[in-house]
Amino acid sequence: MAAKTALITGITGQDGSYLAEFLLDRGYRVVGMTRRTSTEVHERIEHLMGAIEIVSGDLLDQSSMTGLVAEIRPDEIYNLAAQSFVPTSWHQPVLTGEFTALGVTRVLESVRSVDKKIRFYQASSSEMFGKVVETPQNEKTPFYPRSPYGVAKVYGHWITVNYRESYGMYAASGILFNHESSRRGKEFVTRKISDGVARIKYGLLDKLRLGNLDARRDWGYAGDYVRAMWLMLQQPQADDYVIATGRTHSVRDFCRLAFENVGLDYRQYVVEDARFVRPAEVDLLTGDPSKARRILGWEPETRFEDLVEMMVRADLDRLRPPTRA
Fold it and tell me: Which residues belong to the active site?
């Protein structure tokens, strides 16, 4: 049997790099789509460059997407590309809508026009729940997004459902709760903390300035979550699934554990700074992954405490001063 081909948009991101590794291990031909830019940002997939194919495409351009899908003829498409940093979405709401909302429609349209048998995965987000109306949140919980990013993700989610129901396409959405790793961008609070801890440990930083320390999130490990994406496209029918750990921790908890990993007390170094508080805060997100457990057989394998330690160790290794000969 010929190897399956997967097209991953957003392959240079955290999830894209882990998903590419996962699919390569399963014998896939992996094609990653990137935008043509003046600077190549392949840091997270540098170690995979001999094993994957990179093509240029743009979620803002319908003809480029359709041409790409027609040329590659993938069995599966994983749409991970988005403007994914929530604070940026207030400064660039229109661009966020173009990428994170309408970009989904362009990929779905390309599948519809080229080959409706292609299986499509949409990266939905727990940010769609926003100001939650019930806890924990499951696939039936109403959405109440609290940022332009969350609003755009709701559009992307519903257009995926719409194409599935209107055209009989295999289009699934993973409503992923926060998932982290040492490949997380440094603008995200978890990576900001692990990077800050390493810098403070090595005397490169005095204080770590953060926003709301009492915001609570359901944090998992990105390496576990990409397995769920793949499982969703292996089912007889497409559906939507919440992917989460079902446990929540505050930003303060993350800080405490991260600093404990280097023998320090976070209270001496962490400063709450109003500049980093969102215009509309999302205070509590907790996912109910029981449907994914029941149908996909998926369970998170990495404990929160181990995730924090993994991220701190990686930043300590990255920033370790060279030893003098």
Answer: 125, 127, 149
